[in-house]
Amino acid sequence: MEKQATRDAYGQALVELGHLHDDIVVLDADLSSSTKTAGFGKAFPARFINAGIAEQNMIGMAAGLAAAGKTVFASSFAIFAVGRAFEQVRNSLAYANLNVKVCATHAGLTVGEDGGSHQAVEDIAVMRSVPNMCVVVPADGPSTKAALYRLYQRKGPAYLRLGRPAVPKIYDGEKIDFVIGKGIELRKGKDVTIIACGIMVHKSLEAAKLLAEEGIEAAVIDMHTIKPIDKELIIKQARSTGAILTVEEHNIIGGLGSAVAEVVAENHPVFVERLGIEDIFGQSAGPEELLEHYGLTIQNIIDKIHLLLNKKKELK
Amino acid sequence: MREINNDSIALVNEKALIIRESIIKMLGESGSGHTGGSLSAADIMACLYFWELNIDPKDPKAAGRDRFVLSKGHAAPVLYATLAEKGFFPDEYLSRLRKLGSPLQGHPDMNKLSGVEASTGSLGQGISWSVGMALAEKMDKTGYRVYALLGDGELQEGMVWEAVMAAGHYHLDNLVAIVDNNSLQIDGRVEKVMGVQPIADKFKAFNWEVLSIDGHNVEQIMAALEKARSIKNRPTVIVAKTLKGKGCSFMEDKAEWHGVAPKKDEVERALAELHATH
Ligand SMILES: Cc1ncc(C[n+]2csc(CCOP(=O)(O)OP(=O)(O)O)c2C)c(N)n1
Ligand SMILES: [Mg+2]
Questions:
Q1: What kind of architecture, by CATH, is found in domain A184-315?
Q2: What ipTM does this complex have?
């Protein structure tokens, strides 16, 4: 199976976009080899600014560049781009409604060996709660590229959440129909719906395949845009399957699961289970090892589906 | 113990060698981690833990103990090597660096490992902790001193200068900052990425005493630490000129060795070189 890190796809797409649009400026904070903005820096040195290890100033400069008419892509690790520079993101980017895309890599547990201090497990929640902010969490390389093209077209502040390790490709780059704010129904099913984002989309598809062998038909949605969330699709799935499981590499509080539960509760209450990190910090270890330790495996998805279906049965 | 003489210098040099060997072995085993910035700080760490600091591994929470904060937290291997050699925990721990469930996290975690005074890893934050610790000492008159080790790239963080301003403002003469001035960060040479020079003048402007030394000369490091004790009414910064990757020729002064661990053959080469030059 072909694999690619979303950060690698990001770096490549940035260079492509750079050739197409002169107004693009890229910023980084001493992590350009890891966030993969170095390629853009090499291709367009005059439009690349290394802020040094100064994320707050990077976001502040991004605001100024955007106010002067540039389309800005600013990168660091998620923990620093969202965490360290949060108030600059909130006031200088979002409150001012400027055209800056905060493209953060190394989000979630799959940062791996660097450990809990470097694993952002709260970034989706934090960014989702900021007015004007659009939040996108792509599942693989091709959809990362598609997201970047769409984000360029869409004016205003956005957060793109990317990962460190190579992940299986789900989409064929040419055929992907990626619209911000519209979830993608990757698999149809009548018994239950799995709504996932990021690296958990592939695991959800694998789980659905195994569930099919037991005779359980699970629909799988790639909810790449967490905000604005695709309400219509969530309500449609709640109606048609009567049970929803959300799956994300993020704290159980405030992320995709919360966003989906809000829509379901207000519009068409059905059972919702949320699979995510159980409100606990990460630690050092290999990426897959951590996903297993914190309960984010294919088997964990299957177990949760069984739980959901039992609840559904008891109700009847 | 506090005298600077041939014996104390020889002892600290010996410890610095042990620390470097331990860094190489530890990183070789873990397969990931920060090599360059750990090696550049080995002599400074040896001076601190085997000459300067008033600490007792058998009583790691003693109220009056000196505090050391690794503000450049990614250099965790140099801290772990030093703490193990000092006796804070068994050497066997070192083979579990960055492994699931290990007290030796990728970046220091004060709640998981004895001897770690502050959970660091996000650059800039350790120096603020250190100012807080020094302020607490002034309130309680516990008699301890606080030492913080910073990277030169780390100086680009705005919060470093907020902390430096606060320390100057509060006349924290119980605080010593040491800058590991190896002139490299991840994306290349510090002066090329985002210049921080003149470092000394910046600290002076914030009312700090500045001592500039060779960070691999144990005698100079000891003398600077001794001098810092005599400075009253203001904090001291020791700007230590160092080489990233110091001790292993193929790593020295190379940005590529910032966050990469040595492979098996590189471990052997590095250990052989360390022995030969000692
Ligand atoms: C706030 C923050 N931003 C970014 C990083 C990622 N990072 C880790 S080490 C490093 C470079 C550090 O350079 P320097 O301070 O000179 O350390 P040294 O050369 O001694 O290793 C960076 C950018 C971080 N740990 N913290
Ligand atoms: Mg440096």
A1: 3-Layer(aba) Sandwich (3.40)
A2: 0.97
